[in-house]
Amino acid sequence: MLEQSAINAVDKFVASIKETETYKKYSEQLQLIKQQPQLYEKVNEFRQRNFELQNSEQTDDLFEKIDAFEKEYEKFREEPLVDNFLRAELALCRMMQKVDAMITEKLDFE
Q1: First-residue to last-residue Cα distance in the chain
Q2: SS3 for 110?
Q3: Phi/psi at 95 (nearest 5 deg)?
Q4: How far is CA 82 from CA 32, 56, 64, 70, 92, in A?
Q5: Integer Cα distance of 80 and 84 in angstroms
Q6: Residue 41 CB: number of other CB atoms within 10 A?
Q7: Residue 82: which residues within 8 A CB-CB, separation 6 or more?
Q8: If you ran DSSP here, which 8-state letter would residue 74 be given?
Q9: Tens digits of residue pLDDT in 71-86
Q10: What DSSP string describes 11-68?
Q11: pLDDT-derived band of residue 2, with 50, 70 and 90 as boundaries?
């Protein structure tokens, strides 16, 4: 069970993340794209397929599959609302990866 002091620290930390420009931009872009449910659904489909490709254990013809995927979604990615959302999401993911790495390093966790 998580100690109350750790829970309080996490709550405070999450609040500070929500105050960053990176998170605010992501949140804003998320709300904008959710206003168009069909587009948001297609973005989620894109994200799911991209995740599956990136985590595929099958290496045979992986480059061809990635190339075909990129071509299939090329026009879709040019849509400003889609592009802005995906860029904001990527920025938040990168920030969270850095945070995770810093926590792991500072804890001497191997």
Answers
A1: 22
A2: coil
A3: -60, -45
A4: 10, 24, 24, 14, 15
A5: 6
A6: 10
A7: 33, 39, 43, 46, 76
A8: H
A9: 999 999 999 999 999 9
A10: HHHHHHHHTSHHHHHHHHHHHHHHTSHHHHHHHHHHHHHHHHHHT-S--TTHHHHHHH
A11: confident
Which pair of structure tokens corresponds to residue 106? Answer: 């500072």
Q: How far is CA 20 from CA 9, 13, 62, 95, 96, in A?
A: 17, 11, 36, 10, 12
CB contact at 8 A, 88 and 29 = yes
Answer whether 95's CB lies under 8 Å from 22's CB: yes
- pTM here? 0.86
Give, to the nearest 10 degrees, the angle between helix 21-34 and helix 4-18: 70
